[in-house]
Design a protein that fits this description.
By secondary structure, this protein is mainly α. Strands 1-2 form a two-stranded antiparallel ribbon. Helix content is 68%, strand content 6%. It contains 8 helices and 2 strands, in the order H-H-H-H-H-E-E-H-H-H. It has helices at 7-21, 26-36, 42-66, 72-93, 98-118, 152-169, 174-183, 189-210; strands at residues 134-139, 145-150. Strand 1 (134-139) and strand 2 (145-150) form a beta hairpin.
């Protein structure tokens, strides 16, 4: 075990960075595990990553709750939608050969990176809520007020997909969920980050339980 002590500071860095952007850190941890353990199967790598993501997301969620940045109503709604996808994703991983898993993971991370690079967020240009949109009002611990609206149908559909992909690849899903909350569902960035962490805790626990 002494030759693996270096994993502790690495875990600290991944956890800090993952909490900062609401992504859980799995998108960093899985590629690292792939490089360190080329002989391991995809289900072993994803199960390790999901377990780490859960503890990271759980502790990060507590911190965000104290700051009153978690939208509980939206978080519970989206988390419930991720559970079927997370179960199916965990069950599917064992059927994917390691070479194909590596390629699929790389393509997904590149696609997410390109989306973030070329899709600039422009706050303050939200349209009036359409029929069927859910309007949310949140006040942070520091007094900052947020009012935004989104389509719950779109949010549930996205969460179902995110739950599947995150559990399938072990990346946690925040790298996809946070941009989706901000760019597609009009969440303020701080609320999106905190709420994503809350969702991640439930989703990662589900995927880890299946594994």
């Amino acid at each position: 075990m002494l030759d693996r002590i270096w994993l502790i500071p690495v875990g600290f860095i991944i956890g800090s960075y993952g909490t900062l952007i609401g992504a859980g850190g799995g998108f960093v941890l899985v590629p690292m595990l792939i490089l360190l353990y080329p002989q391991e199967s995809p289900e072993v790598i994803t199960s390790i990553s999901l377990a780490v993501v859960f503890f990271n997301a759980f502790s990060g969620s507590i911190a965000y709750m104290r700051l009153k940045r978690v939208d509980y109503r939206s978080g519970i709604l989206f988390a419930a939608a991720t559970i079927p996808g997370a179960i199916l994703g965990a069950l599917t991983t064992s059927f994917i050969p390691r070479p194909l898993f590596d390629i699929f993971l790389g393509v997904m991370l590149i696609a997410a990176s390109l989306f973030l690079i070329f899709h600039t967020h422009k706050p303050g240009k939200e349209k009036d809520p359409k029929r069927g949109c859910l309007i949310r009002n949140l006040i942070e611990a520091n007094g900052t007020s947020h009012t935004f609206s989104y389509s719950p149908t779109l949010g549930i559909g996205l969460s179902l997909v995110v739950g599947y992909i995150s559990s399938l690849l072990g990346i946690g899903g925040g790298i996809i969920h946070v941009p989706a909350l901000v760019h597609l569902l009009n969440f303020p960035i701080h609320i999106a980050t905190a709420t994503s962490h809350f969702i991640l805790a439930i989703m990662a626990l589900t995927g880890t339980g299946v594994h």
